[in-house]
Design goal:
Strand content: 15-25%
Number of strands: 6
Number of helices: 5
Strand order of the largest sheet: 1-4-5-6
Length: 157
């Protein structure tokens, strides 16, 4: 998530300079475990969109002011099944059918506190549901912490 945000944040400033009304949405296609990116973004203990972000430079949280929001689309499973020629779930007609407004699974919108507010038309066009409105569904509840575990490459030894 950090790398996705950093990459998008570095690409959007030119658009903002050219159009003061520019709004940016980073769309990420994820699998059914959407609680993972939600935790990375919103966990009070270490979320990237919080003051306690695990991404820090010179002791301060890194903000991504050029990314107004992140839209998490649970569609990776559909891509895998569609490319394998197997039937799709969730009443999808074809591989690029991302569903209609109100269909399952919802597209979770996480707004960036350092970004700009999105117009209502954006939310409607993207079938975006603010993540706060999805907290009743278990898969849209972030965990309490983000733990990144790395395994050192021992092959060079």
């Amino acid at each position: 998530m950090k790398d996705f945000l950093a990459s998008a944040d570095s690409k959007f400033p030119g658009f903002r300079a050219a159009d003061r009304d520019f709004r940016s949405v980073l769309v990420i296609v994820w699998d059914d475990f959407v609680n993972e990116p939600l935790t990375a973004l919103t966990s009070p203990a270490s979320g990237l969109f919080t003051p306690n972000s695990f991404h820090r430079v010179d002791g301060g949280s890194v903000e991504y002011p050029n990314v107004d929001a992140v839209l998490l689309v649970r569609h990776q499973h559909q891509v895998v099944e569609g490319l394998a020629g197997r039937p799709l779930a969730d009443d999808r007609a074809h591989l690029l059918d991302y569903g209609l407004s109100g269909s399952f699974p919802p597209h979770a919108l996480v707004t960036n506190p350092a970004g700009r507010r999105l117009p209502t038309e954006f939310l409607s066009a993207l079938h975006a549901v603010p993540v706060e409105a999805l907290n009743a569904a278990a898969e849209y509840n972030p965990g309490e912490i983000v733990m990144w575990v790395g395994i050192a490459d021992q092959s060079a030894d």
